[in-house]
Specification:
63 residues, mainly alpha, elongated
């Protein structure tokens, strides 16, 4: 749960940074921001969705 929240914060900061870099026309930074939002955002949103719908967080290994 904590990791999902940290990744959500990273995603929000990447969105803010991407918007700022679009204004500066720094397309390399915008690309990295877009990839960061895709990866970290997907993980954090899906983990929080799983927590809300099933009551469990990310899948845990049962070894």
């Amino acid at each position: 749960m904590f990791l999902a929240i940290v990744f959500l914060i990273i995603t929000i900061l990447a969105v803010i940074g991407g918007i700022r870099e679009m204004k500066r026309m720094n397309l390399f930074a915008v690309g990295f921001s877009f990839v960061t939002v895709l990866v970290f955002g997907f993980f954090s949103i899906m983990t929080l969705y799983s927590l809300i719908t099933t009551g469990e967080g990310a899948p845990v290994s049962t070894h």
